[in-house]
Amino acid sequence: MRQINEICARYKSIDPLSREEEQVLFSQYKYYKDRLALVDLNDPECAQLEKKIERIQEKIIRANVRFVCVIARPFCYRHNVEIEDMVAEGVIGLMRALDKFEVQANTKFISYAVFWIRNHIERSVENSKMIRLNYGIIRNIEGFKRDRRRIEQMLERAVSLREAVELNEETTTKPNWGAETWDVIESTTLSLDKSYGESREEGMDTPMVERIASRQNSDPLLKAIEKEQKHMIKKLLLEALDYRERKAVEWFYGLNGKEQRTCEAIAQDFNFSRQRVSQILEIAERKILRQVRNYKISRNLIGVN
Length: 305
Prior knowledge:
This protein is mainly α. The protein has three domains: 2-127, Up-down Bundle (Four Helix Bundle (Hemerythrin (Met), subunit A)); 135-218, no CATH class; 227-301, Arc Repressor Mutant, subunit A (Orthogonal Bundle), CATH 1.10.10. The chain has helices at 2-9, 19-38, 44-79, 83-100, 109-127, 135-155, 161-167, 179-193, 208-218, 220-228, 230-240, 243-253, 263-270, 274-301. α2 crosses α3 and α3 packs across α14 (274-301). The longest helix is centred in the first third of the chain and has 36 residues, at 44-79. It is flat. The two termini are 22 Å apart.
């Protein structure tokens, strides 16, 4: 409670923008974005425009983070999640709204952005419910499950994990988890135990808990994805790039199960020149870096690394 209040209080001193200030900033933002779309990537003006766009983004976001905190606070209580994570997700939604907002005389930006803020937070909570249980907690759950099997044999009836922990006299330190956390654990345990797929050769009949652990330890790309927040990076290929850019990046870097290819091989598939493929890759990489930078801005603005 105290941490949530401290985080939210941090932004109360930042004054919100007036409607007139918003209109000026959004007019500049739209002009610079439209201009950037016409400028060659190698033109020095491109970097200047990107800096101007970034400064406007930061100013608008800082002025609205206080509202993100108000929206994020209930999720922290209901879902036992960190306030910093929820505010960061809300800021990403805020940035999404920033790109879609059309200035109107009687509409404040935050009124439009509320949907996007709440949507990003809700999706983050839903997508990370299973991952929210870190591996240390998962190991505890595995022990609780062994205790539950033993107690069920003794009592000759089914018991919940929470009941098994309470009935187990050998457990000296019982977890101080609330009802909401236990509900998440009970529902998540089914997903952690469930095997996916039918073929052992495909390696898909391994319980999800083991797949999470082995995946995190073996694949450098997935480690990087974890660090930058998995679902955000996955969305880059789906939302930031068009079809040709996405396919070119997947083939060139061997992503998403694709076999790695050279620019010449990609050019043959697309019926383009090698130079055109290189240009597509350069544009795609710049888009991805811009999205990652935007995400880092959202984390830095609220003091999260």
